[in-house]
From TrEMBL:
It comes from the Bacteria. This is IrrE N-terminal-like domain-containing protein.
Amino acid sequence: MNRLDIKRSMSALPEYLQEIPEEVRKKTGIEVEFKEPDAEFKTRNPGMAATSAGVEIDPDNNSIIIWLTPAGLEKGALIHELLHLKRNIIDSVLKIFPNSSSPVHIQQQTFFLENDFEHLFILPEEILADPEREKEWVEVYKNALEKSRDRVLSLYMHWLVLNIALPNQTELIAECKSLLHGFPPYDVFGAAESLRNQVQSSMPDKHKMLNVLSSILRPELRSHMLIGRYVSANGRLTAECLGAL
């Protein structure tokens, strides 16, 4: 992947998406870089090690990098990552961070929870910009359901995304519902539907949404999570911690 590939892909996007890196530069003084994931990136970000694209925001080193594999770039993942960047830096939305001392598996789980919550906002906008992207997300969540058959929390999050962000995918929604019914005698489906209703009625207030999420997490998992956001002041980007989840 080279600069020409990025330039060509950027030029094909709607103008408001093309402008995001420059808006970020004006707000933070940081030039957004585009790179192909390497071993160091995967070690540093275990939660994103298997993905074809991701945004790495590093206030300590005043660095913002959009990581894209050639396959990710070809499939249009650039739109997705630009929208993540916009919400993180330009909109400064609340998010959950893992405690820096948390075990790797907790950091990964925190990343996936936050990522799925953001998908509730990003996927509809992404598909509006490029309707072909919905097919990619159908495949992503089809695979995710297959891997989550015995993982209740993952199924809860998939239920949220499928119903709120991909409501036309009725077959996937039905498959997820069937899996949620597979934990008798517990009413896991009823809990998932209650979660969906509470989260959807809280949107777009991310703080209320995170409070809903907090109520269903095991204390030993929740204790590793913090609420915060990225803020920029005096030309310097920082991660502001607002307390425990």
